[in-house]
Design goal:
Number of strands: 0
Helix content: over 70%
Mean pLDDT: 83
Radius of gyration: 24 Å
Length: 306
């Protein structure tokens, strides 16, 4: 396991280098000259040239990239053009909120998705199975924007049970977590059901039943344990996608997350913040996938042996 972990860590280095190059290149794909944006409207050509020289924008691209990457490794992403504050401070506060939202939504999705999938597999073709799979299909199809508005209208405006917006208490996280977790919940439930049904038809399950083992032992010790290999992969991929795709939920509930920060920075052409936001989310996505791979190899030793 140690060799497998070390090999996977070493494989991250070239991947992160490629990601950093792509992120650094975004500044040149965005419309407008960064020096003109930083110098402000009405700036003279001399002022723009001074800004370009002071920020090193007149140097070759590879020198700019190496300088930017060296500072990024030490947590220095420069200064925000829009607010004048260090980018690391802006990113840190926003990323913490997005990470909390993602963790809460995936906890909600994983717990309810596993329970729903297991019961559906055990009670195959029952009323519960049919209803839960229809609800799961709706959960995959519905957009976070529409679901978030409906939840706010019902639980906040009509019933008054939960806060409409803001982060004043833990109750404020409930509706955003449900909104963001609805789609992964549906996918985990369907994947758990299909994996469980496939495994419960295997010969060793029939043999275990023939030996008279209790049904709960067969379900949880044999069927669910093997079904988790597939479910872990789905949970990991969904976690990474939720981390980078929470911008709609953050916008609906007015949460100060990194997704909203990236959108606001793109509108304001705040290049340092855009670069840092994309790099942090991409690095987090890569690290989450690494954890999933390690967990997958731990559950299924054949992966690391191969």
């Amino acid at each position: 396991m140690f060799k497998y972990t070390l090999r996977r860590l070493l494989m991250l280095i070239p991947l992160l280098v490629v990601v950093s190059v792509l992120v650094f290149s975004t500044i040149y794909l965005m419309p407008g000259d960064p020096a003109e944006v930083i110098a402000g409207e009405g700036a003279s050509q001399e002022d723009i040239a001074n800004v370009r020289q002071s920020l090193g924008l007149d140097r070759p691209l590879y020198e700019q990239y190496l300088s930017w990457m060296a500072r990024a490794v030490h947590g220095d992403f420069g200064t925000s053009i829009r607010t004048g504050r260090p980018v690391a401070q802006e990113i840190g506060f926003r990323f913490k909120n997005t990470l909390n939202l993602t963790v809460f939504s995936m906890l909600f999705a994983t717990i309810f998705g596993l329970v729903t999938g297991i019961i559906s597999a055990v009670r195959r073709y029952s009323v519960y199975d049919n209803i839960s799979m229809v609800v799961a299909l709706i959960g995959i199809s519905i957009t976070p924007f529409y679901l978030g508005l409906m939840l706010m209208l019902f639980f906040s405006v009509r019933l008054g049970w939960l806060p409409l917006m803001g982060l004043d208490s833990w109750r404020a996280w409930i509706l955003p977590a449900i909104t963001l977790g609805a789609r992964p919940l549906a996918m985990i439930a369907r994947m758990t059901r299909s994996s469980m049904l496939e495994i419960m038809g295997q010969d060793y399950i029939l043999t275990a039943r023939a030996q008279g083992l209790p049904e709960w032992v067969i379900i949880f010790k044999y069927a669910l344990k093997n079904a988790l290999n597939t479910v872990i992969t789905v949970v990991g991929l969904q976690f990474g996608q939720q981390l980078g795709g929470a911008v709609i939920t953050e916008t609906v509930f007015a949460l100060p997350g990194i997704g909203r920060l990236a959108v606001e920075s793109i509108k304001a052409r705040d290049f340092p913040v855009v670069q840092a936001a994309i790099l942090v989310v991409a690095a987090a996505f890569v690290l989450v996938n690494l954890v999933v791979d390690l967990l997958y190899a731990y559950v299924n030793p054949r992966i690391r042996y191969s």
